[in-house]
Structures are given as structure tokens and as C-alpha cells.
Amino acid sequence: xxxxxxxxxxxxxxxxxxxxxxxxxxxxxxxxxxxxxxxxxxxxxxxxxxxxxxxxxxxxxxxxxxxxxxxxxxxxxxxxxxxxxxxxxxxxxxxxxxxxxxxxxxxxxxxxxxxxxxxxxxxxxxxxxxxxxxxxxxxxxxxxxxxxxxxxxxxxxxxxxxxxxxxxxxxxxxxxxxxxxxxxxxxxxxxxxxxxxxxxxxxxxxxxxxxxxxxxxxxxxxxxxxxxxxxxxxxxxxxxxxxxxxxxxxxxxxxxxxxxxxxxxxxxxxxxxxxxxxxxxxxxxxxxxxxxxxxxxxxxxxxxxxxxxxxxxxxxxxxxxxxxxxxxxxxxxxxxxxxxxxxxxxxxxxxxxxxxxxxxxxxxxxxxxxxxxxxxxxxxxxxxxxxxxxxxxxxxxxxxxxxxxxxxxxxxxxxxxxxxxxxxxxxxxxxxxxxxxxxxxxxxxxxxxxxxxxxxxxxxxxxxxxxxxxxxxxxxxxxxxxxxxxxxxxxxxxxxxxxxxxxxxxxxxxxxxxxxxxxxxxxxxxxxxxxxxxxxxxxxxxxxxxxxxxxxxxxxxxxxxxxxxxxxxxxxxxxxxxxxxxxxxxxxxxxxxxxxxxxxxxxxxxxxxxxxxxxxxxxxxxxxxxxxxxxxxxxxxxxxxxxxxxxxxxxxxx
Length: 654
Known about the structure:
alpha/beta, 654 residues, Ionotropic glutamate receptor C-terminal domain-containing protein, membrane, 14% strand, cell membrane, ligand-gated monoatomic ion channel activity, elongated, D-Maltodextrin-Binding Protein, domain 2, six-stranded mixed beta sheet
């Protein structure tokens, strides 16, 4: 059977010495980059180097055996189009020139172009050189602010020659050591107390209005100016609609100012646009709410119990009494038998209330203050912030879920005064104004710094001075001085709250009229409720009588009634004026001896002898009499109906 030959046997690639995969790729993909192209690029590079660096002297071209045999075509093309005159020589296998006189033709101006297979052999070919042909590198620096105009002059710092410096000096010396020669820096400032603020004063000499600037950053700049021998000029930003911080940043970015001072917070956006100094202060974003004043004293009577307890007591006494009263066959027997439970419950509640009422009456009650974001979210608060200056965008990408939830319902105000005016707006009492509470939790910490233009030459020096001032405690002293100037009272003292370090001794305090007004208000409320209940009872009784009179038949008289002595007694109630058994005006004489006074009657003994059975019997008699009364009324109504509908005539009682 004929077998087909294997593919490897008939493929000519596998005969002899087959090429590797890398060689095949190189052959197919790099076919266009032929050696002639590479050689022409190398020749052009060598010609360019010759024209740039070797044209002042005649170059000497030296080559060895490898170049002469293997790269002869490259070497011929290189010499054929060489741009200047040259001299060439051959290097034998012993690293010797075939024509040694080539090295002594011109000793003072020699340029070599050497082609060697081993670069280390060049020392044997040319020999040791007595002088370095390398030109030294001169290093310069500048002395900045040599005059008040901000000019500078170059200064030779060092030189580099023979792989070493000519002298050992600091290559990066500190600049502006002697100051700025009285140069005037323009400072863009906005009114941001306490960092920098504007004051308008009247000159006592001529009466002219004078504008002065003060604050932490202003005093810091004055201190830096004295230290570094420069002066400052304060200018206000032109575009005030951006907000104080963004406006001064724009002034510096537009090269209209040299320094920005407006209590700038260090943010990523400002770090990208400006060079900020070392932070000189720390600030904190907080919430301002109305101060939690003490609750009125008339509400102190509600203090011992929480509103849950008051609700439970109200339901117990006012609502739960109805199902309890009529749950046992519409009788009051079970309430009378179990009266001790209600009495015990009332005693416990009363004892708990009276045991705590004194503390709530004599001591003021302060509600909880708003100090955290969770409290803001839990309450029904309207939260606002500034609509400019970065506050509207700084917290949009926050990773805190509470912050994101809070800024979904945020409101914006044009300035700080408008925000405080919204907080202190009084609807009833003007005394509610200016009572503010600052939250204890820091919503967002910020660092405060001065702003400089990007890559400014004076940034590093002034920033380093600010760092040293902070570390030495001078900035803390400046802060205390500014606080003293702003918060100083008319008596010459710092108008801040005093915190006593001593525990005040407990003193007895009597109840005032203000402390007891809640009790009288509660008593008056009870009288008002009772009066309303009594009035409703009267109105209900009157309306019921009027209804009964309208529905009572006109022909109804005592002759139509079925005679019943018991009913007459209960209905008439032994009225002497209508009694048929009267004495017709006769006078009854009663002597003192016929009157017996029982002085030994004991009410408590009599009440203790009564049993529950007697009470049940009396209650039963009351219900039976009521039932008899309703039965008689129903009987009279039936008789009246029969009399009216009878065809014979009126009913006659015999």
C-alpha cells in the first residue's frame, strides 16, 4: 500500500539548516529596513556632528581592520561625501598607527574620529593626553530683588571641569537672604473676620475718613514685611460676585496681585491654581442654630413624666374607664368591689410625681442642642449655606452618606449676614434674636494659608517664615491679640463667658411665684374643664326636658292615670303643697320633752356595719324603680294612643 510522505519531508524549509521562527519574522516584517537605509542615517549623523563640533580643526579619521574589511562600503560612503577636509589613517592589529606622524601634525588643534571594534583600545592608539580638551561648564545663579523694582543680577556660582567642581560650594543657596530691598507687594484682601477685616475710622486731626485693615493675616503680613524688608499695598478684588475667597484667587491668577489674603482654605482646586503657604491657622465648618434656652416654668409641672407616661395616664383615666365600667353586665358592682386597686394605682402615680416635681420646679430645664449631622437630619430643620466661594461644590463628592443626604435639601444664601438673619428671625418676641448656638462637632476641618502665584520666587521664603512663626508660638500670640481687640468690652475686659472652677455650694431656695404659676395654670385648666362638663350636663338636661314637653300629649292628666300610690310617692317626692293628706292649715304644737336627740349615734360604726349585700340590694332597688317608671310611661303612651284612635269617644276613668 502506498503511503503519502510526511509534510516535513516535502517542505523545503526543513531541508538543510532551517531558519528559526524569529529569523523568519525578521525576514518578513523588517524587509523594508535594509542595511543601506541604516548606513545612510549613520553617515548623515556623522556629517552633522562634524559640521557642528569639528569644523574649526582638520579632523583625523582612524579605523581598524574590521572596518576596512567588513564595513568598507559604509566607510567609503562616509569619506566620499565628508563635508570638510580630513586626514585618515589605519590601525593595525597591534593598536599602532601605520603612519604615526599623523598625531604630530598639529598638536594644538586635533579632532579625532576613531572607528574601533573595541573602544577600550583607544588609549593605546592615541596615548595619554596631557591636557583635557573638554571645555568647563559654568554654573550661574541670580541675586533676586537687588532694588525696589524687583531687578536681579547674575552671579557665577561654580564651574565643572575634569569631572569635578572647581570649588566646594552649595549649588542651591537660599535666595533673598537680605530681604526684598523695599519692594512693594500688592495684596488682594477681602473682609473675612478674624483673618482680615476692614475698619473705617475718622482721623481726629483733619476729620477725614481713613480705611484701615486688621486681623490675623494682616498682622502676619506686617511682621513678614519687617522681617524681609518689603512693603505691602492692600487692594480689594474687582469681581465680588464670586465670593471673598474666589475673588482674591482670581486677582492673583490674573497677575493683578502678588499675595492673596482672605482666610483661604486649602483645597485641591486652589492648590492647582496657586502656590499656598504653610498653613498658619486651622478653621472648622460648624452649624449655627438658635440657643436652647430654658423652658418656661409653667411647663415644669410636666417634667416628672415623659410624654409617653402622660399619654398612658390619660388613656387609663379617661378612656379605659368606660369599658371597665360597663363590662360586667352594665353594672358598677365590680368597680365597687375592686376599688382598692384603683386607689393603690393612684397612690403610686402620685408618689412618683410628687417625689420629682420639686427638682423640676426649682431647676431650669434645657432642651437638647443641635451638635451633629444626625440631629439635623432627625429634626425638621431648614439647612442653608453660602451660594458662592466653594461651599456649593466642596461637599458634592463626599463619601459620608449623612453629608450627601443633608446636601440634598440644602438651601443657599448670598452672604453670612443673611444666613444669621434667617437663624435669628423672631416671630413673636424680639428677645429671641442674637441667641445663637455653635455646634460642638466639627463638620469639616480646614487649613488656612496665604496664596501666591504659581512658581513665584518669593513663595518658598515667605512660606518658610510662616512655618517658623507658627512653631515659635508667635502666631498664637497674634490670635490672642486680635481676639482681645475684637471682643474687648467697654470696661477693658475680654467679653467672654466666665467658667468657674469651683463648685458652688448648694443653697436653699424658696419657691417663687414664677415657679408656682404652672400649678395655678393646671388648677385653672381643671376648673375650666369641669365648668365645661357641668355646662354640657345642664344643656343636655334642658334639651331633654324641652324634647319631653314637645312630645307630651296635651290631654294627659291625673284622671287618665291608673292609680298607684307607690308611683305617686316616687314621682311627687312628698310635695306638701300638692299633698291630699294635709292638715288644712292646722297648727301642730310640739313640746321640747317630746323631742329625743340621739347624741350617741356613731356614723363610722353605722357605716362599718353595712355590708356589701345591703349595697347590692339598694342598687337593685334603684334599677327596679327606674324600670317601673319606664313601664308606667309606656302604659300611659298606649292608653293615649287607644283614646285617640277609639271610634266611641274619650276614655272615662271610673
